[in-house]
């Protein structure tokens, strides 16, 4: 009876709390959409300036090859390299392609010659991607020219195939990463907010003089979040459909593992509530305290690009394991046979956190 | 005498809600002018209009000769305004708070040195100059706020609910400061919910629902209800109440610890038939009216209805004795409760008084099983607070001064939740809710959210939530702070009803006039129980005359204790 | 304007802030944490990519090809794969990011000058990395079999401003914009609302202080904190991460001053229009932290975003400051190039302050 009353109360309160409702709604929908649209796009339309000193059919074909894929957008035709400088300085062009005189002649003669590609390195990632595109374009161009070449030549033709994400868009990844992130925030923010609010209003003291046991209160503060977290995932599954993210694995497995993940996130939320006195402190802690956790998860940058120390640290972030699970189920279509180490890790991270949360909670009330 | 404040047709609307209407005030220079009125009467709005930090919707106000709209900056520069909330920066020390107040008001450094020394000495704050304001007691904070508003020697001081939550000792100090200040020729406007405080004002304005009902001196106001107040002493309180309840001539019926008090409508007399029925049951004696009676007579609100007859759920309450034996609570070196022994019998209402920090709340927390005593033992409803805390919780009710309710739940949802928290289900839960909400006159409000209720209704709901399970002992920690006199009276009727049904009520309060509702009083000071007994016994202990007010009794005992401690 | 009153407000505010360890901690430690995390973790530099080789040819030539991969610094041979199933598993587990499949008869075909296809399988989950990996791999296969690269058409890339393509060099200057946008507004936003919530604002209203004096005094301590943050971030950026500084330090500091005023002003404006600390906190997170992280071009280049989002980014001063900061630090340009961005920030600042003063009337309602 007592527990039922508590659970009932928690659910009513959840639906009446505009701040937390707004936050969860924001995290699971608007943020996912914004990020998917803004960040999920593959890098395209890089503004490219061209210095074509040759002006031959072959050089024009090469420029066309650059533009055709949509990776580059022609920003300007320049007369010489000196003119390129202001373009790069002002950010009007990200890269400059310089085609030397006699490009066509040398191409048919098969002599060695170098195309120059100037890249604005001030955004290292953009620059690296631009270089990658340029390399691919020139390779493809060379191979096609090779077949025009009259003399037979030794060639290795490589077929490049991208798995799991053939369009090479970032949308799939961004949508899933944001959903994972939303799960973390919900799992942490909701229990923290609901506990801290009882502290603020003074009702926690009132509860202490009723026969409600601490265990009951603890369950009442954690179980609803688990349910809410699971329910809140559903609308974002609609977004998954909207963005055409493939669902290759099993959804029930995804929900089950989401519950497991929420379990450790909730423990964090109780810990946050234990150390904060006001809702504001709790939110600050949740946002900034979780920042490193999020950072080390691979949602922002791939884990393997990090230095070894951070890579090892990232194993302690439940979000990292959840992200691997989410990507695995949706994009790779794998099941427990591959994901079990991550599930196990979630349990291993969650148990001590939960235990700690319970100990703190007991002292708190 | 020139006017410090003159308002004509002053009114203010918030959205569609008219908060103040047609206020015509004339405050003279050099007087203490009181604003008295129930919750939501518009006192705070009026104060803000006078401080020129709120513009009126209609009419105008002239403060110290300046128009509050066109010359707001001039008004701001000359008045001291103390709002109801604390106006101090918690992280700044006493001196720093005062310095800040002085510097934003262009007080010269040497003027500041002189005045601050004077004010701090007068307020008794000279020894805590470096303490952060957040660590001061409520009384000290109010005194510091007052000093901060006096630092630039404003010719007019506006004080909103000056002594809300302040204990009687600090209240006396505050008023000492105010009177000094008035005697220097300045003007004070103060709003207050305390009747005894209103007595200190030179003149009073009664506000109700945005209207000024009367402006007069306290003596004149009391004179208006002279001869309409009677004390009814009886051994059969219930029977007498039943007779008097529905008599049309009776405006108000108050149920005090040792007597009933009735107030008649203007020009009315008790009909002979009623007098005849009372004969033999009770003795009637004319009583001197207080401001509270004047307030009730003026107020347009209906006098509180008497609570419905006691239902069986309450009369079942039994075994609600409370016993403490040399109970001590220590936090490190600090002794919060020092060897307190007390025994309360079932059905008794015991009032627990004392300055802030005397240990009242700590004691209640021990009785509720929230805090382990360092020494001694206590039994509540026959259960040991140390060994049987879990069982104890089902037998007691607790209501804190913050009216701890869930603001985002409705009245009914709060009731249902707390009933469930006490393990009540199904039929028993329905009955308990019906009984408690009927008793506290919440019927019809079930679907309202707590956040939109007035303090008075929240107070009744908090009470309802704490008695759902029919506790043997009810603990009330300053249950009436922030509630106006009318609703306070109504609340006490409920308490008397519960007590007459056998429930033991243990209550702490800062409102000394409420002592007359308690069967016995305990006075705490520095953790020790320094006096215990009926009001009469406490008076006699000091050899005070029989008409000595509660304040004299309270302060007298505290002073005697201090003398004893000193010697 | 009375300087004494402003000083009174400023000293009061400074004392309050200094006595709040949580705020000071967040203000001084979080920027460094952010800087270190971003500096170390955000890097899409591709080196040491784990790869697998499925060599079905098992000839000297096929071994040469796989050695061509492992000899480069970009790739590291994680494992030899025995069959396609093993390859699939390795990709699924994320053990390898690239698989090279050399079909039987590879050597023979090559000897006969016939096209000899190999397969390159890239894990596409992180699309930016995938592009780079693919580009590098193609370049290796393309040049395979030629005596020297000069003998054929090849691309010579030159990266300006950041020749090593180090992500740190990109991230650190961009991070100034984010950190100065994230923390100063947070502090000022809460500062004013806190007075509203606790009721101390009434004392201010009912005093001779004017709105401008009050705001100016309030601002000062936070401006100082913000400058300390800026100095710290710039100092750590150059001394610790060794970011080169090509432009004028004094110039960057001067512009930062303007930018910090702008961000503080945004905080004040949020503070002036909100009533609770909680709402102010959320508002700040949504109008400053998120956009400056996502829509400033600091991590994600703006030209890849959809057009609507690009317009949206124009509304946040962070994007202009990223341009300015990268311009000064990496490109070594000055006023002559950056004046449009600087002018926009200046106008923005004025506007924000005007709005804040206008909104903070000295009335309770």
Helix run count of chain B: 20
**Which strand order do you get reading across the main beta sheet of chain B?**
7-8-9-4-10-11
Overall number of domains of chain A: 2
Give the uncertain stretches of chain B in residue-range form: 303-315
Global morphology of chain B? globular
The overall pLDDT of chain B, averaged over residues, is 86
Largest two-chain interface: A-C, 104 and 103 residues
| Sheet with the most strands, sense and barrel status of chain B | 6 strands, mixed
Overall description:
The complex is a heterotrimer of chains A (365), B (567) and C (365). Chain A has 365 residues and is an alpha/beta fold. Chain A contains 14 helices and five strands. Chain A folds into two domains: 2-39 and 169-364, no CATH class; 46-148, abc type-2 transporter like fold (3-Layer(aba) Sandwich). A four-stranded mixed beta sheet of chain A has the order 2-1-3-4. The longest helix of chain A is centred in the middle third of the chain and has 31 residues, at 171-201. Chain A starts with a helix and ends with a helix. Mean pLDDT of chain A is 81; it is low at 147-154. In chain B, the strands form five sheets. Chain B has a six-stranded mixed beta sheet, sandwiched between helices. Chain B has a six-stranded mixed beta sheet with strand order 21-22-23-18-24-25, sandwiched between helices. In chain B, strands 1, 2, 3, 5 and 6 form a five-stranded antiparallel beta sheet that branches. In chain B, helix 4 (109-123) runs antiparallel to helix 5 (138-150) and helix 15 packs parallel to helix 17. With 365 residues, chain C is an alpha/beta fold. Chain C has 14 helices and five strands. A four-stranded mixed beta sheet of chain C has the order 2-1-3-4, sandwiched between helices. In chain C, strand 1, helix 3 and strand 2 form a beta-alpha-beta unit. In chain C, helix 2 (21-41) runs antiparallel to helix 7 (167-198), helix 7 (167-198) packs parallel to helix 10 (249-273) and helix 10 runs antiparallel to helix 11. At the A-C interface, helix 2, helix 4, strand 4, helix 6 and strand 5 of A face helix 2, helix 4, strand 4, helix 6 and strand 5 of C. Strand 5 (156-163) of chain A pairs parallel with strand 4 (116-123) of chain C.
């Amino acid at each position: 009876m007592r527990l039922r009353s508590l659970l009932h109360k928690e659910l009513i309160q959840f639906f009446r709390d505009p701040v937390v409702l707004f936050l969860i709604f924001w995290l699971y929908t608007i943020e996912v959409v914004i990020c998917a649209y803004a960040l999920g796009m593959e890098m395209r339309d890089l503004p490219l300036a061209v210095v074509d000193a040759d002006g031959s059919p072959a050089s024009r074909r090469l420029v066309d090859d650059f533009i055709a894929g949509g990776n580059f957008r022609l920003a300007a035709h320049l007369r010489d390299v000196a003119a390129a400088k202001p373009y790069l300085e002002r950010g009007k062009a990200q890269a400059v392609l310089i085609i030397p005189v006699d490009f066509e002649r040398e191409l048919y003669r098969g002599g060695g010659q170098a195309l120059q590609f100037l890249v604005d390195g001030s955004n290292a990632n953009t620059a690296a991607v631009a270089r990658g595109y340029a390399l691919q374009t020139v390779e493809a161009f060379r191979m096609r020219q090779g077949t025009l070449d009259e003399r037979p030549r030794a060639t290795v033709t490589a077929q490049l195939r991208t798995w799991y994400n053939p369009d090479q868009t970032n949308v799939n990844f961004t949508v899933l990463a944001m959903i994972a992130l939303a799960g973390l925030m919900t799992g942490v923010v909701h229990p923290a907010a609901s506990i801290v609010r009882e502290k603020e209003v003074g009702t926690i003291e009132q509860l202490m003089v009723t026969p409600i046991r601490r265990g009951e209160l603890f369950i009442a503060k954690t179980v609803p979040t688990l349910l809410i977290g699971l329910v809140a995932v559903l609308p974002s599954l609609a977004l998954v459909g909207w963005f055409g993210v493939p669902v290759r694995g099993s959804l029930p497995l995804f929900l089950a593992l989401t519950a497991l993940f929420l379990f450790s996130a909730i423990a964090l939320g109780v810990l946050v509530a234990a150390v904060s006195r006001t809702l504001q402190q709790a939110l600050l802690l949740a946002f900034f305290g979780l920042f490193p956790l999020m950072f080390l998860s691979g949602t922002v940058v791939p884990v393997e690009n990090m230095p070894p120390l951070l890579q090892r640290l990232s194993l302690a972030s439940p979000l990292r394991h959840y992200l691997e699970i989410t990507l695995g189920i949706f994009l790779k279509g794998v099941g427990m046979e591959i994901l079990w180490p991550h599930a196990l890790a979630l349990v291993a991270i969650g148990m001590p956190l939960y235990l700690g949360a319970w100990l703190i909670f007991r002292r708190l009330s | 005498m020139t006017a410090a404040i003159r308002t004509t047709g002053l009114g203010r609307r918030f959205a569609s809600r008219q908060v103040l209407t047609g206020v015509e005030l004339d405050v003279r220079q050099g007087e203490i002018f009181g604003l008295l009125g129930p919750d939501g009467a518009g006192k705070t709005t009026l104060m803000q209009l006078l401080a020129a930090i709120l513009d009126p919707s209609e009419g105008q106000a002239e403060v110290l000769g300046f128009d509050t709209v066109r010359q707001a900056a001039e008004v701001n520069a000359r008045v001291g305004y103390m709002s109801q909330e604390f106006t101090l920066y918690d992280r700044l020390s006493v001196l720093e708070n005062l310095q800040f107040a002085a510097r934003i008001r262009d007080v010269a450094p040497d003027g500041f040195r002189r005045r601050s020394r004077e004010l701090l000495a007068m307020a008794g704050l000279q020894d805590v100059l470096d303490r952060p304001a957040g660590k001061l007691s409520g009384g000290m904070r109010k005194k510091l706020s007052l000093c901060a508003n006096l630092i630039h020697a404003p010719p007019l001081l506006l004080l909103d609910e000056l002594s809300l939550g302040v204990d009687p000792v600090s209240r006396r100090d505050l008023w000492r400061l105010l009177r000094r200040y008035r005697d220097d020729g300045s003007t004070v406007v103060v709003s207050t919910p305390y009747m005894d405080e209103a007595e200190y004002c030179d003149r009073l304005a009664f506000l109700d629902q945005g209207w000024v009902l009367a402006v007069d001196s306290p003596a004149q106001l009391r004179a208006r209800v002279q001869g309409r107040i009677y004390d009814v002493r009886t051994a059969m309180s219930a029977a007498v109440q039943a007779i008097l309840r529905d008599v049309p001539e009776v405006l108000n019926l108050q149920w005090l610890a040792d007597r009933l008090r009735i107030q008649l409508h203007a020009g009315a007399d008790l009909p002979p038939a009623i007098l005849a029925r009372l004969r033999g049951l009770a003795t009637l004696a004319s009583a001197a009216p207080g401001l509270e009676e004047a307030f009730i007579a003026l107020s347009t609100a209906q006098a509180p209805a008497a609570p419905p007859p006691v239902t069986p759920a309450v009369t079942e309450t039994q075994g609600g004795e409370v016993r403490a034996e040399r109970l001590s609570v220590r936090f490190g070196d600090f002794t919060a409760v020092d060897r307190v022994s007390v025994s309360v019998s079932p059905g008794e209402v015991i009032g627990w008084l004392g300055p802030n920090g005397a240990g009242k709340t700590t004691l209640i927390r021990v009785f509720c099983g929230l805090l382990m005593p360092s020494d001694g033992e206590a039994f509540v409803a026959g259960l040991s607070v140390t060994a049987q805390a879990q069982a104890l919780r089902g037998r007691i009710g607790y209501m804190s001064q913050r009216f701890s309710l869930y603001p985002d739940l409705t009245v009914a949802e709060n009731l249902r939740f707390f009933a469930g928290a006490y393990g009540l289900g199904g039929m028993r839960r329905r009955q308990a809710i019906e009984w408690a909400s009927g008793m506290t006159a919440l019927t019809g409000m079930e679907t309202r959210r707590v956040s939109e209720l007035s303090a008075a209704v929240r107070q009744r709901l908090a009470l309802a939530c704490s008695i759902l399970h029919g506790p043997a002992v009810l603990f009330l920690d300053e249950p009436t702070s922030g509630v106006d006199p009318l609703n306070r009276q109504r609340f006490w009727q409920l308490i008397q009803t519960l007590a007459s049904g056998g429930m033991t009520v243990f209550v702490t309060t800062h409102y000394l006039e409420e002592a007359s509702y308690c069967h016995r009083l305990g006075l705490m000071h520095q953790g020790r129980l320094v006096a215990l007994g009926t009001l009469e016994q406490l008076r006699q202990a000091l050899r005070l005359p029989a008409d000595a007010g509660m304040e004299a009794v309270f302060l007298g005992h505290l002073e005697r204790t201090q003398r004893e401690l000193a010697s | 304007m009375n300087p004494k009153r402003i000083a009174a407000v400023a000293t009061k505010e400074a004392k309050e802030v200094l006595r709040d360890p949580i705020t000071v901690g967040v203000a001084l430690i979080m920027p460094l944490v952010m800087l270190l995390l971003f500096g170390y973790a955000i890097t899409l530099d591709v080196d040491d990519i784990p790869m697998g080789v499925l060599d079905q040819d098992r000839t000297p030539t096929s071994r040469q090809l796989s050695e061509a991969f492992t000899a480069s610094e970009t790739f590291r041979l994680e494992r030899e794969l025995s069959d396609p199933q093993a390859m699939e598993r390795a990709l699924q587990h994320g053990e390898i990011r690239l698989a090279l499949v050399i079909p039987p008869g590879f050597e023979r075909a090559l000897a006969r000058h016939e096209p000899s296809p190999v397969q390159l399988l890239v894990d596409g989950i992180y699309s930016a990395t995938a592009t780079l990996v693919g580009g590098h791999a193609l370049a290796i296969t393309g040049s395979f079999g030629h005596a020297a690269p000069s003998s054929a058409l090849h691309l010579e890339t030159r990266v300006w401003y950041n020749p090593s393509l180090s992500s740190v060099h990109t991230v650190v200057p961009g991070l100034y914009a984010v950190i100065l946008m994230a923390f100063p507004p947070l502090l000022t936003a809460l500062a004013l609302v806190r007075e509203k919530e606790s009721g101390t604002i009434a004392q201010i209203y009912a005093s001779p202080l004017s709105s401008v004096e009050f705001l100016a005094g309030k601002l000062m301590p936070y401006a100082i904190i913000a400058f300390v943050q800026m100095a710290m971030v710039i100092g750590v950026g150059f001394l610790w991460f060794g970011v080169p500084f090509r432009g004028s330090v004094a110039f960057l500091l001067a512009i930062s001053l303007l930018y910090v005023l702008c961000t503080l002003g945004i905080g004040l404006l949020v503070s002036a229009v909100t009533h609770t600390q909680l709402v102010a906190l959320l508002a700040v997170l949504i109008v400053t932290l998120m956009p400056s992280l996502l829509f400033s071009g600091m991590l994600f280049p703006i030209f890849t975003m959809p057009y609507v989002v690009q317009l949206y980014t124009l509304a946040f001063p962070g994007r202009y400051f990223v341009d300015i900061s990268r311009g000064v630090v990496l490109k070594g340009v000055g006023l002559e190039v950056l004046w449009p961005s600087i002018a926009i920030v200046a106008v923005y600042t004025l506007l924000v302050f005007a709005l804040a003063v206008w909104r903070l009337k000295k009335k309770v309602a």
